[in-house]
Amino acid sequence: MPRIKGRLEEELNKQLNSELYSAYLYLSMAAYFDSMNLRGFASWMKVQAKEELEHAMKIYEYINDRGGRVKLDAIKAPPTQWSSVSEAIEHALRHEESVTESIGRLYRLAKELGDEATEVFLHWFINEQVEEEALFSDLLNKVKAAGEDPRALLMLDSVLAGRK
Ligand code: FEO
Fold it and tell me: Can you tell me the mean pLDDT for 95-120?
C-alpha cells in the first residue's frame, strides 16, 4: 500500500482536529446544560463528546496505518453560552451538517487522487453522518415540541439521561 499523499494527509489531519473540536463543542454544551440543572441533556452531550473522540481516534489510527504523520493543531474555543436549549441543539445540528460537508470534500479529494483505501475508509464516516444528522434533528424536534413547557422539558431531560 503506497504511503498516503501529502495533501490527503493534511486534510485528514484537519478532519481529526475538527472531530476534536466537535468533542469540545459538545462538552461545552454539556457544561451549559449542567449549569441549568438539565442533567439528562448534559449526560447525553457527554456521551456525544466521547463519540467524537472515537471519531478522532479512527482518523488518527488511519493516518498512521497509511504511513502518514499525525499532527495535532490547536483546538479553537467553543462557545460557552446559548440563548436557549433549542438554540444549542440547533447549533449542534448545523455543526453536524458542516461536518458532513467536510467529509464529502475529503471523499471527493480521495477519489480525485485515486486513493481507494481512503475512499473506503470514509464510507464509515459518510454513514455515521447520516445517523448523526438524524439524531440531532430528532432531538431538535423533541425540544421544539416541548416548547416553553418546563414539565415537558424535564420529562425529555429524564429520557435523555438514559443514553449510554
Ligand atoms: Fe464526528 Fe458528529 O461527527
Answer: 98
